[in-house]
Amino acid sequence: ADEITGCDPLVEDSDSNERYFNIKTRKDNLAGVRDADIIILAVKPQLMSEVLAGIADYTDGKLIISIAAGIAIEKIKSRVADTARVVRVMPNTPALIGEGMSAFCTGGGISESDRKIVAEILQSVGEAVEVEESLMDAVTGLSGSGPAYVYLIIEALADGGVLMGLARETAQKLAVQTVLGSARMVLETGKHPGELKDAVTSPAGTTIRALEILEEKGLRSALIEAVKAAAERSRELNNM
Question: What predicted TM-score, i.e. pTM, was given to this entire model?
Answer without folding.
Answer: 0.91
